[in-house]
Every structure is written in C-alpha cells, then in structure tokens.
Specification:
Layout: E1 13-16, E2 19-22, E3 27-33, H1 48-60, E4 65-69, H2 83-100, E5 105-109, H3 113-121, E6 126-129, H4 138-146, E7 149-153, H5 174-191, E8 199-202, H6 211-219, H7 222-225, E9 232-233, H8 239-245, H9 254-266, E10 271-274, H10 277-294
Parallel strand pairs: 3-4, 3-10, 4-5, 5-6, 6-7, 7-8, 9-10
Antiparallel strand pairs: 1-2
Helix pairs in contact: 1-2, 2-3, 3-4, 6-8, 9-10
C-alpha cells in the first residue's frame, strides 16, 4: 500500500479524525454556502432549515460529503466576516448535518481558528482553508489537536482580494510558483503537528489566477499530485469555465465545470468540490470507469 504523504506516490486515502476517506473512486463534496453574498447562490441557504434541506439533496444526488462555508470569497466585493458572525452561520448547520447524516464527510470552509474549533466540536471532519494557513496559523493547531483533516488551498492576498486578479502575477512557470508556495505551507502544517496523511492539497483554481493559469494548473495537475497528498479541485462555476463556454451566469456553467473535473481526475485529482453534484457525479463515475479499463486502479 502506498502511504499518503510520500512524494511521488499517489495518495490512496485521506485521514480525517476517526475515519479514512478512501480514494478508490472520485470523492464529491457538495458546496453549501450559508452566506448572503456568495457569487453563485448567496442567500439561498442562509437559514438553518434551507441549508440542511439542501445538504440532504446534495447527498441524495451522490455527494460523499458536504463543504459548509460561512464567508464568501467572491470575485467582486467579497466582505470579510467577523469570527462571531461566521461561527453563528456555520456551527448550527454543521451540528444538524452531523446529527442527521452521520455517515457523510463534513468539511468546513474557513480561515479562522475560532470557527474551525467550534465546527470540529460539532462534528466536522476537516477544515478547508482557502488561505492554506496564511491568515490564521491557529487553524493548524486546532486541526492537529483534533486529528482533523485539512485542505491547504493555494491563494494570495486577503479574503477580500484572493478571488480577484490583484495578486495574479506569476513567473515563466506558474505551476512551479504555486507548488513552491503550497510546499511552504505544507511544511508549516506538518511542523504544527498535522499528520501528513491528514493533509490534502488544492491548487486554488480561479483564486489569484487568471484563466490561463487555472487551465495550466489543470493540465499539469500531476505535478501537484506528485507531492503525495490527496488533491482536491474546485472548478465549479468559476470564471474561467464561463470564459470557455460563453456562459456569463454562474449557474449555467455546471456542464463545463464537470468537464474540468474530468480533466483533473485524469491528472490525479481525487476530491471534487462542486455545486451541481448530480452532473459531476455522473461525469466522474463514467470517466473513472474508463480509466480503470485503460489502466487498472487497485483499491488499497
């Protein structure tokens, strides 16, 4: 069995608290934004009953888990949220989803240690930190103490700017730049006590990246996978998908997003954060079946 965190080897599982998330098939996380201002679905699920009902629909459509977010990083006009406000949005939803759907993988999208600690206390298995621990190093220590999983996503700048092009300047090899910055945060996460097997990496498609850079990252995603950690991607409804398909409305980009997921799957991604679970699930399952015929993939 290949051990997670071994450079150059594909990770076959992701350890998150009391469970091992097997990567012997694509893992799909349904996006649940409990914010009033998310770029795609802001305000639809900012009430507890609506949020939990939507989580149930995502799971019924084939999601393996739910990623709950209480602070928007939208491309235009993202507004930082105080920890108390974010916690009040996220924690009741996490508590209720954990109670109703105990078998579901539950992750929380936050950059704040206070929110991370409260969410883990209510049943979250992992923290999805879109700053890769840059904005609050305390998130690392919270995850280490709880033996929770963590996703380190590459980005630059603040919550207000990371969804823009303000810091989207890279050198001749943008993938190498992203890898270098991710590896630095990876080293910190391990030094803080997070087990290598609990760390997943996300190249941050669309975050501090122009469309050409996001496409290059997908094309060369094997370089990220070669670091030996599970790779998560989140192309769902992103601007670069709309530029390719001509869909100006975020909700019209789901088919294109599924195409990006399939391309990423073929290059080593195993965890996919999406809005339209049903479309992504079907596309990924068919692509995975073809991949297993072409090159047999053995479960751990």
């Amino acid at each position: 069995m290949i051990v997670s965190g071994r450079r150059g080897a594909a990770a076959l599982e992701w350890r998150v608290r009391d469970r091992a998330v097997l990567l012997d098939r694509p893992v799909v996380l349904g996006i649940l934004n409990v914010t009033p201002d998310s770029f795609s679905d802001g305000g639809k699920y900012d009430r507890l009953d609506a949020a939990v009902a939507h989580a149930g629909r995502l799971l019924a459509d084939g999601a393996d888990g739910i990623d709950v977010g209480g602070e928007s990083t939208r491309p235009q006009g993202a507004r930082p949220v105080a920890a108390d406000e974010e916690r009040s949005r996220v924690v009741p939803v996490v508590r209720e989803i954990a109670r109703r759907y105990p078998g579901a993988l539950l992750t929380v999208d936050t950059t704040k240690s206070e929110v991370a600690e409260a969410a883990i206390g209510e049943g979250a298995h992992a923290i999805n930190d879109v700053s890769a621990l840059r904005l609050d190093v305390g998130v690392a220590y919270v995850c280490a103490r709880a033996r929770a999983g963590i996703v380190l996503m590459h980005s630059r700048g603040s919550v207000a700017t990371m969804g823009t092009y303000a810091d989207a300047q890279y050198g001749d090899d943008p993938v190498a730049d992203v890898l270098g910055e991710l590896e630095e945060q990876l080293g910190f996460a391990e030094s803080a006590g997070i087990a290598a097997s609990s760390i997943a990496l996300d190249p941050g498609l669309g975050f501090s990246k122009q469309s050409a850079t996001s496409l290059q990252l997908i094309a060369e995603l094997a370089r990220v996978a070669a670091l030996g950690h599970p790779v998560l991607v989140g192309p769902s409804r992103k601007r670069f998908v709309g530029e390719i398909t001509g869909e100006a409305a975020a909700a019209g980009r789901d088919a294109g997003s599924a195409g990006a997921c399939v391309a990423a799957l073929e290059r080593g991604a195993r965890i996919f954060r999406v809005h339209d679970v049903r479309t992504a699930r079907h596309a990924l399952d068919v692509a995975w079946a073809v991949m297993k015929v072409a090159l047999p993939i053995h479960a751990p």
